[in-house]
Amino acid sequence: MRRLLVAGNWKMNASKVMLNELLAGITANAPQQTDVVVFPPAPYLLMAADKLQGSSVKIGGQNLNANESGAFTGEVSANMLVDCGCDAVLVGHSERRTLFAETDTDVLAKTEAALAAGLTPYVCIGETLEEREANKTEAVIEQQINAVLNGLTVQQLAKCVFAYEPVWAIGTGKTASPEQAQQVHAFIRSLLAAKDEELALNSHVLYGGSVKASNAKELFAQQDIDGGLVGGASLQAEEFLGICNPA
Ligand code: 13P
Q1: If DSSP codes are grouped into helix, strand and coil, which group holds residue 121?
Q2: Strand (E) positions, 204-247?
Q3: Which class is domain 4-244?
Q4: Is the beta carbon of 231 within 6 A of some atom in ligand 1?
Q5: What band does 1 get if pLDDT is binned at 50, 70 and 90?
Q6: Helices 16-29 and 237-244: angle between axes, nearest 10 degrees
Q7: Residue of the nearest CA to atom 7 in ligand 1?
Q8: Active-site amino acid positions
Q9: Residues 96-126: pLDDT tens digits?
């Protein structure tokens, strides 16, 4: 049985005041039946970890460098994230792939580094509008997910979370319909099953792209959608809690 998992990716949005208000709002009403994780920007992770002590809400980093340490100005390692109180880290978000030229090879290296440090990697995959319109959705998804499926053991993959985020639905207000999302989620699960049946049964596959309190229930009701990776709507406690608790 896969528990509902809702993750809030704050992207490059935060201040000390905002963090205090948002986390106070989320922790005051975090639902027991949902696993909740927030991904604040790196400079706020320590403060978030401090705020979340004693709460069931977990935190994660938005990115990591695959190297352990050294001359990589501006970068953050997996062990630093752990040291700052993180449980998880996003890997391969489409904004990292398109704006910072991250490749499938980078995604695999980062996923391995995260796992080695004991972090849960949230491996993000998704097609652009152009790719969808050219009927390439499944080919793109397969290529992106195969980068990790072929590079990791079943035991390593069992510690990953997967997130399907169609690029055309991110920050656009254009959510994939529950049927469109379910179709791709079922495809992702079939690829996991080809690697290992048990892995497919137990893995969380989240949907991301304009998830809101008003559409979460229908999306999460789909058989292969196990929760959400939420951007904009994770910046307001009430809206985020409405997604975490889509009753
Ligand atoms: P939005 O929810 O703002 O569309 O962002 C989705 C996302 O990119 C989460 O990682």
Answers
A1: strand
A2: 205-208, 227-230
A3: alpha beta
A4: yes
A5: confident
A6: 40
A7: 231
A8: 93, 165
A9: 999 999 999 999 999 999 999 999 999 999 9
